[in-house]
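Lecture notes, part 5. Sequence design as translation. It can be helpful to think of inverse folding as translation between two languages: the language of shapes and the language of residues. The source text, in structure tokens, appears below.
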């Protein structure tokens, strides 16, 4: 049995002083204003810390964080994000993939995501990878843990004002297809990590993955056991029929939401226990969520997923 925690969209606050104006990009002040008028009233770093403590108490083998650790990709946000990641777990026990807020505006690797590089490093040589000025870590990356292969994809890239979409591009998609086939033949349970919802129609057009259709086609052709994502800030469970059985696609709310309304779901994380039974992969799933009234984490639901 392999146990895995999944959280997403931490949106660590507060924003550093001057974050909107240093290394100026037009989108940063807009995001800064959005944070102070709306988002800071919902995202509470103390709730994210409670989730981190709950994960630690569960004693999981590994943690998957599917993006949006920061808010407007201000240079000063990234060292603080790295310190929070260190509190979550060492790089060999925690895997991170970037989201649209981690790539909010063009930001050189050396001033930004380099601080999170240890949590984006694979331990399997991948033949075909993608890098950029913003994300010099090669994607996809693969981490092999017991009988589980964790595959990290990068969908984050700078977007024009008011857009929050993402893209993988042909190189990541081609590499993913090759990896899924190889890892299936080698007997691994394949867990794909991506920030944006990976199937068409799961996010509004301005926030969607531009090549979700192509990603779906790869998953249908090669199969996967789990695909984990964030971005929509709510609980999501979708099933995809593939040539090799069911692929379960799960999204989680933001890990720092402290209050609920018509737009926001309180913070939560998913606890997966993956095991091979009777020729199939079974994932026992526990959903742990923040109770705003009690100010603590409680079990919201438990269910089993099978391929």
């Amino acid at each position: 049995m392999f146990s895995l925690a999944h959280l997403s969209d931490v949106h660590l606050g507060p924003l550093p002083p001057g974050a909107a104006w240093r290394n100026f990009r037009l989108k940063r002040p807009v995001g800064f204003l959005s944070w102070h008028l709306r988002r800071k009233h919902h995202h509470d770093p103390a709730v994210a810390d409670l989730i981190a403590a709950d994960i630690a108490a569960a004693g999981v083998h590994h943690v998957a964080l599917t993006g949006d650790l920061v808010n407007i990709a201000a240079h000063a946000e990234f060292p603080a994000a790295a310190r929070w990641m260190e509190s979550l777990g060492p790089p060999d026990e925690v895997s991170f993939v970037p989201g649209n807020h981690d790539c909010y505006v063009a930001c050189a690797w050396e001033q930004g995501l380099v601080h999170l590089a240890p949590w984006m490093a694979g331990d399997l040589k991948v033949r075909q990878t993608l890098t950029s000025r913003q994300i010099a870590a090669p994607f996809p990356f693969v981490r092999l843990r017991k009988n589980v292969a964790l595959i990290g994809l990068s969908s984050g890239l700078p977007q024009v004002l008011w857009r929050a979409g993402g893209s993988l591009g042909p190189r990541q998609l081609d590499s993913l297809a090759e990896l899924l086939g190889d890892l299936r033949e080698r007997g691994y349970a394949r867990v794909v990590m991506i920030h944006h919802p990976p199937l068409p129609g799961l996010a509004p057009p301005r926030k969607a993955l531009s090549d979700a259709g192509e990603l779906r086609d790869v998953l249908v052709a090669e199969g996967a056991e789990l695909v984990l994502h964030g971005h929509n800030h709510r609980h999501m469970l979708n099933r995809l029929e593939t040539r090799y059985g069911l692929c379960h696609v799960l999204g989680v709310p933001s890990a720092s939401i402290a209050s609920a309304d018509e737009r926001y779901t309180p913070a939560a994380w998913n606890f997966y226990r993956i095991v091979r039974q009777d020729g199939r992969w079974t994932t026992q799933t526990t959903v742990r969520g923040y109770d705003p009234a009690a100010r603590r984490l409680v079990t919201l639901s438990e269910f089993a997923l099978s391929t």
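The translated text above is only one of many valid answers, since several sequences can fold into similar shapes. Residues 2-306 form a domain with the Purple Acid Phosphatase; chain A, domain 2 fold (CATH 3.60.21.10).
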